[in-house]
Write a structure and sequence with these properties.
Layout (H helix, E strand, L loop, with lengths): L17 E4 L3 H17 L10 H17 L7 E8 L7 E8 L3 E4 L2 E3 L6 E8 L22 H6 L9 E8 L4 H18 L11 E6 L4 E8 L8 E9 L1
Parallel strand pairs: 1-4, 6-7, 7-10
Antiparallel strand pairs: 2-3, 3-6, 4-5, 8-9, 9-10
């Protein structure tokens, strides 16, 4: 299971107006989200959807409902297409924010109006189109829609050092796509198309063959004086 990697340790007890958490709490939050992916996919009440917006809206509804009724996670809210706090005109697919409390993590304050954790969602494979790049999970030569690239150049989450990407795998399997992304990053590093290196590759940290899910991690240097960002990749075969 995705949750095998580390035991989930949510905040518990009577909710105070302010909640103080350690930076490692993000790991528990990401484990919670990852553990809910199979339940969301397999929910018999979930209408059939294949497009990215529909899937992400459904996932947001599921996470909002589950967190609201799970002790230790009921001080969170999940929001769709939140404006980026720094990047004007840019939106985050899915955002986690406080609900009913002010959260402090390593000296930084988060209110209900601020994103705790930005989440970008992508389909694998990328849908066909004249302006679509098959490498869109990591990079696009047509626009700034490349998933990892958005975080690398600070178009997404410039004020954050942690982020999540969710992959809806609609064809082939996790191992096949992991190898494909490896090859694409090799090609980008050799072509000098953007600031890519082998250090940008995804590292698998866990996989569950029963639920058909996996957790990867990648770390990326950023320019413009931005701090390094860690992205946790939650993949699920649909």
């Amino acid at each position: 299971m995705l949750a095998d990697e580390a035991e989930i340790q949510p905040y518990s007890g009577v909710l105070d107006p302010e909640v103080h958490l350690k930076g490692e709490w993000f790991d528990s939050l990401i484990e919670f989200i990852g553990a809910e992916l199979p339940a969301w996919r397999d929910d018999p009440m979930r209408p059939s959807h294949s497009n990215e917006n529909g899937l992400t809206s459904q996932l947001c509804s599921h996470l909002a409902s589950v967190s609201r009724h799970t002790p230790g996670w009921d001080f969170l809210q999940f929001k769709r297409e939140e404006p980026d706090e720094v990047g004007a005109g840019r939106e985050i697919d899915l955002a986690v924010a406080p609900s009913g409390a002010v959260i402090w993590i390593e000296g930084r304050q988060y209110t209900k109006y601020q994103t705790l954790l930005p989440i970008e969602c992508k389909r694998l494979p990328t849908p066909p189109g004249s302006k679509r790049d098959r490498r869109e999970y990591i990079y696009s030569s047509f626009s700034s829609t490349g998933g990892i690239h958005r975080f690398k150049v600070g178009h997404h989450a410039p004020a954050h050092v942690r982020a999540v990407m969710v992959a809806y795998i609609q064809e082939k399997d996790i191992r096949t796509w992991a190898k494909q992304l490896d090859r694409w990053i090799d090609e980008l590093e050799m072509s000098l198309e953007g600031d890519w290196s082998l250090e940008d590759k995804l590292i698998m940290t866990s996989q569950d063959s029963v639920s058909k899910t996996a957790l990867f991690r990648s770390t990326h240097m950023r320019g413009l004086g931005l701090k390094e960002i860690r992205i946790d990749h939650l993949w699920i075969e649909m």
